[in-house]
Amino acid sequence: MTRSAPALRFVPLLALLLGLLSGTVHAQQDRILLSATNCVLELEKGVYHLWDHVRVESPGVLQITCDDLRAALPQDKAAGGPGPVPTGGKLQSLVASGNVVIELYQAGANGSTNVVRAFGRQAEYGSREEVLILTGEPRIETASGTMIGTDALVYDLKSRTMRNRGPYRIELKADILKGSTLFNRGTNAPKAR
Amino acid sequence: MFPPNRPSPHARARQAPWIGQILVAIGILASGGSPAARAQSAPPAGRATNAPAGATAASIRNWGITLRDTATGRVQLRFSSAEATPAASGNGALVPALWDVTGLRLESFRVDESSDFVIESPSCRVDVTTRDATSPGLFTARRDADGMSIRGHGFRFDGTVRRLTVTNSVAIELRTRLFQPKPASP
């Protein structure tokens, strides 16, 4: 028997632990937590309306706070089926309105987390396009700057890209130019003696 | 408007068993006056508590009422509880359709009579005629099919349209995701 045998015994254990950890992460991502002071839930139709201190959390993915939220988690009437059944838990749409603040969490390099914050009077999510459409003085803040729209800002959740409807402006933070060679090029000016 | 957390001492007092059977019958009748409507409900056995003579209402242990669709006869809702007491109206008279219920379990069924969701509340008032349940207190609800769970304070459940209204605070957990997160880039 070689000396490496005891160490090898831990390999399956490590794999098991990693598997459990991975499962926990997936379980976290597969949860959406909604909270509010008031709500009306149409349980058969799958239409939820929440208002007053509304918070939506998708752990590790995003958090939304707003005054009013309408969500649709429709029930499929399967052809030939006995009746309405949940659509595999798929959230179809979400409309947040009133003082909307969205925080999107992105896994960055070296285990860090980047946060993108979006502000507006209304935010709509549609499961078909997987985009967040922000209207009402929309503004998106990232680590490098702020994008301010006049009509709507559209954030693609799949590609993590932003686009706009109507005019917009971008305000970049000066920090992003640190270390840049953009303003540190050689010139033809005579060297100081 | 809302029921007390516990039945009154009068209600919990001793009562002859046959009175409990009458009250169960009242519960059946409360779900509808016609013979067809009476056939809708099939309550589990209720057992009256012992109460002294002169008590206005008896508590029924293991109370339950099943409500069926009038057209198809399929089970729609089932109310069951550890204990229930007929509620009194403003002038003190008992209202057969109203029950103050301790330990409510309200189960809603799909068209195929499979269980859809369950609402549980330590204390609430049930109106069998309108198929409503209300409480200012704590409640939980869950649907196993999609893993949805709800916890809150102050609710009204309208059994006719299956609408749950929460007035004090609510927390809902959905077993779903908004989108597939993009893996971290190096």
What does this structure look like?
The complex is a heterodimer of chains A (193) and B (186). Chain A is 13% helix and 50% strand. Chain A is mainly beta and 193 residues long. Chain A has a single domain, classed as Sandwich (lipopolysaccharide transport protein A fold), CATH 2.60.450. In chain A, strands 1, 2, 3, 4, 7, 8, 9, 10, 11, 12, 13 and 14 form a 12-stranded antiparallel beta sheet that branches. In chain A, strands 5-6 form a two-stranded antiparallel sheet. The radius of gyration of chain A is 24 Å and the shape is elongated. Chain B is mainly β. Chain B has one domain: Lipopolysaccharide (LPS) transport protein A like domain (lipopolysaccharide transport protein A fold, Sandwich), CATH 2.60.450. In chain B, 13% of the residues lie in helices and 48% in strands. Chain B contains 3 helices and 8 strands, in the order αααββββββββ. Chains A and B meet through β1, β2, β3, β6 and β7 of A and β7 and β8 of B. β2 of chain A pairs antiparallel with β8 of chain B.
Features:
heterodimer, A: 193 residues, mainly beta, lipopolysaccharide transport protein A fold, twelve-stranded antiparallel β-sheet, two-stranded antiparallel sheet, 1 helix, elongated, B: 186 residues, eight-stranded antiparallel β-sheet, 3 helices, 8 strands, 48% strand, disordered N terminus
